[in-house]
């Protein structure tokens, strides 16, 4: 933390494609005392299982409502002096900028942590994750969905991001 940000609540914005390790990283920060905000967990808690307790076509509407509530909670936490890790994908530069502005207006300082993984690593991780549907894996991410997410992801560049390259499956096996 620089001298300019000393005393300001610290907010970490997680960034990466599904399967890149955002939640694993965010849970570790939570253990260190950060408050973790997760749209996936909040959706699960409020509405239940995707495609079972609510129809898939309502996901966009419901997640938008949840996100607005989490944005409000984020501002409240910052004003209360709490450090926060925001466990969302932040796949677009526009969304990252919106959150930075929100955080600054509330009196906090944001850092962007980008967990970078190649498509094959994501595919292998998601194959394992898809076996255990739950709050942080509410639905199966097929190869088609993953490809769409990967292709639509706006990789941060020049945004002051910290890039954490994820090990490939071959590197992990060593």
Describe this structure in words.
This protein is α/β, with parallel strands linked by helices and 174 residues long. It has a single domain (8-173), classed as Rossmann fold (3-Layer(aba) Sandwich). 46% of the residues lie in helices and 15% in strands. It has seven helices and five strands. It has helices spanning 22-31, 39-47, 59-79, 93-106, 119-129, 143-152, 169-173; strands at 10-15, 35-38, 84-87, 109-116, 162-165. A five-stranded parallel sheet has the order 2-3-1-4-5, with helices on both faces. It is globular, with a radius of gyration of 16 Å. The termini are far apart.
Descriptive tags:
five-stranded parallel beta sheet, 174 residues, alpha/beta, Rossmann fold, 7 helices
Strands, helices and their partners?
Blueprint: E1 10-15, H1 22-31, E2 35-38, H2 39-47, H3 59-79, E3 84-87, H4 93-106, E4 109-116, H5 119-129, H6 143-152, E5 162-165, H7 169-173
Parallel strand pairs: 1-3, 1-4, 2-3, 4-5
Helix pairs in contact: 2-3, 3-4
CATH architecture: 3-Layer(aba) Sandwich
**How many strands?**
5
Mean pLDDT: 89
CATH fold assignment: Rossmann fold
Q: Would you tell me the structural class of the helices and strands?
A: alpha/beta
Q: Strand fraction band?
A: 5-15%
CATH superfamily: P-loop containing nucleotide triphosphate hydrolases
| Number of H- or I-type helical stretches | 7
């Amino acid at each position: 933390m620089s001298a300019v940000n000393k005393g300001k609540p610290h907010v970490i914005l997680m960034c990466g494609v599904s399967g890149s390790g955002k939640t694993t990283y965010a849970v570790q920060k939570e253990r260190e005392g950060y408050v973790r905000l997760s749209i996936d967990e909040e959706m699960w808690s409020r509405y239940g299982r995707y495609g079972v307790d609510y129809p898939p076509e309502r996901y966009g509407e419901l997640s938008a409502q949840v996100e607005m509530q989490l944005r409000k909670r984020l501002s409240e936490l910052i004003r209360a002096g709490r450090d926060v890790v925001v466990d969302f994908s932040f796949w677009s530069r526009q969304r990252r900028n919106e959150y930075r502005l929100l955080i600054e207006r509330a009196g906090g300082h944001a850092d962007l942590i980008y967990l970078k993984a190649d498509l094959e690593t994501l595919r292998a991780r998601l194959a394992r994750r898809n076996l255990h549907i739950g709050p942080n894996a509410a639905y199966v991410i097929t190869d088609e969905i993953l490809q769409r997410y990967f292709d639509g992801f706006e990789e941060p560049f020049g945004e002051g991001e910290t890039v954490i390259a994820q090990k490939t499956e071959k590197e992990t096996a060593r």
